[in-house]
Write a structure and sequence with these properties.
The protein is built from 11 helices and 2 strands, in the order αββαααααααααα. By secondary structure, the protein is mainly α. The protein has one domain. Helix 7 packs parallel to helix 9. The chain binds zinc ion. Zinc ion binds next to loops.
């Protein structure tokens, strides 16, 4: 690694510690509990963005502003032993996890993609995937307020990367990814609406596009990587389901979002390793 690259990695890691803190604010504030289930049977809705982003960091129980010295990612949570300095209420345990996982995912993205323009859409996916997973785990909803805007930003950043690197076939593979990943889930939702929420189909559209985009230029590579992600997501989802049924009993609802995000991140990071043995890996045409 050159000196410039080392500086960029150090700077980027610090930035992603801050982004992790910000992601916690979104996970805290975006969902709002409903008094009674809505027409989809969901117990949560989401707040509009201005309400989520307005104001300084504050405790979600007592509203006390968080002092700068209590706002250090991971460290502050450990020093305060997970309790608010003002009211003593618990600061949810996802805080240190999200604050740590976000910069680690940044390092993973740099390790796997390197320093070409594809890093731009890859880094965008990190706070999106982390916040969607955490919110789905806590509330069983996949927030449309995140997923659709995130999808359009992803497409825009991917177009920038494709133009900058002169490789439009990545975008075509993005479309293939949507068809292969979201298609089966859409059919499943259409035939058995009770089996999953439409939120999962929307999320599969966002993740399918990204998996396809990072699958290189071979059409079969795009198909194979999306199939791989679908298979891995199902295995993870089944595992989470069995654990949840064991822990919470037969009525447990099982979120599928975190399994889809985890499997998408793994398949994107290991795209070349997964596709190379099948002769389907290529980053440029011709
Ligand atoms: Zn408090």
């Amino acid at each position: 690694m050159s000196t410039v690259e080392i500086i960029l990695v150090v700077f980027g890691t610090s930035a992603f510690f801050a982004i992790g803190s910000f992601t916690c604010v979104i996970i805290d504030r975006l969902p709002v509990a409903l008094d009674e289930p809505n027409r989809f049977g969901e117990l949560w809705d989401t707040r509009p963005w201005p309400e989520v982003l307005g104001g300084n960091s504050r405790c979600s129980s007592c509203g006390e502003p968080v002092r700068p010295q209590d706002n250090i990612p991971v460290v502050s949570w450990l020093i305060l032993r997970g309790n608010c300095r003002g009211c003593g209420d618990r600061i949810p345990g996802f805080h240190p996890v999200v604050e740590l996982i976000t910069p680690l995912l940044f390092l993973g993205a740099v390790w796997s993609i390197g320093s070409d323009w594809r890093l731009l859409p890859a880094l965008w996916l990190i706070p999106v995937g982390v916040s969607v997973s955490a919110i789905d785990l806590r509330t069983m909803i996949v927030p449309t307020r995140i997923v659709w805007p995130a999808f359009f930003v992803s497409v825009a950043l991917s177009v920038v990367a494709a133009v900058a690197e002169g490789e439009w076939l990545w975008l075509r593979n993005g479309v293939i990814g949507i068809l292969v990943l979201a298609g089966p889930l859409f059919v499943l939702w259409f035939l058995l609406p009770k089996s999953m929420g439409f939120g999962d189909v929307r999320l599969a559209t966002l993740l399918g596009f990204s998996i396809g985009f990072f699958s290189g230029v071979r059409p079969m590579g795009g198909v194979a990587l999306a199939v791989c992600a679908l298979g891995l997501a199902s295995i993870l989802g089944l595992t989470v389901g069995i654990v949840a049924l064991g822990a919470r009993g037969r009525k447990a609802q099982v979120p599928f979002g975190p399994s889809m995000v985890a499997s998408a991140f793994i398949c994107i990071a290991l795209a070349s390793q997964i596709l190379e043995p099948f002769g389907q890996w290529g980053l440029t045409h011709g």
